[in-house]
Amino acid sequence: MCGNRKLVEPQAEEPARLATVKEPSASALEEQLRQTQIPYEKRAALSPDGDDAVFNFYVPCCRFQEGVSAMQTTCAADQTKDAPDAELPTDAKPKPQTYRVGGEEFEVMPRKKQIFWRIFSIVMLIAVVFAVILLSDVAANWVKRLFA
Q: Which residues contact residue 58 at a Cβ distance below 8 angstroms, ignoring those fewer than 6 apart?
């Protein structure tokens, strides 16, 4: 477990990356996926060494194990390191700019802005505590002088 509270269970039809494969084996894997009637998406990937055509294959989460067995029969030894997609898919959802809590809408803050406001809040809390202590000390001295 990575400690991220925002992890969610993937939906059955969400794409899961099956493999990153170089070109000669990519065609064989694509044919195997077609023959076994596993829906897939083939995306161009950035090649780690820059000389061969590399592709990422995605299958629905609910068919992932079937995809793994299809991959093992065709190109188990020819996989390469995972590589990022060359382009984002056209149907990729953009990150939300706002979110709702209890009917109120809030703007998503960038990480640096979150850190700034957290530090600012801590400094303000320390200043308020210091001011309360200072004012209570002044009030206590005033009460002492009143009865002395």
A: 15, 16, 17, 18, 40, 41, 42, 43
